Amino acid sequence: MAETSAGACIAFLVASGLSPDEIESYLKNADLLKELGGSSIEGLKLLSGGGNKMVSTFTTLAPRLAAKYCEDLIKNDPAKFDQIRNDERFDGFRERAQNNFLEGLTFNDLKLLNQLEPEHFKFLHVTAFDSDKEEPVYFQC
Length: 141
Known about the structure:
This protein has one domain (6-140). It is 50% helix and 9% strand. A two-stranded antiparallel sheet has the order 1-2. The longest helix is centred in the middle third of the chain and has 24 residues, at 53-76. The termini are close together. It has 141 residues and is mostly helical.
């Protein structure tokens, strides 16, 4: 999956295992103006840097749902973790999952989740811009 801007936020949610119905439900029930951190369209134009409440919501919702998936997997099919146990990225993965990925999902986490359940967790490609170096930066899992 690869997207830009708002599409990148949605791509992150899909890659993190949210279903289209879950994303649609969240967006239908969200006060987008408030989520974006403003009280008016003009107020939003004045915001600069630092992200917004919607990004914060996305970056806490996705790890929480991924952790729930892992919790269910550990309970119902612990042998499935053996598929990824020898992967060098596995170190600490189970503990991070049991701690609800409190520090967020990493690209390595997404890679392991994709190995566990490729139909549920998708590959994610992110393009960003390094303003210090004035060049694009690419990340992928």
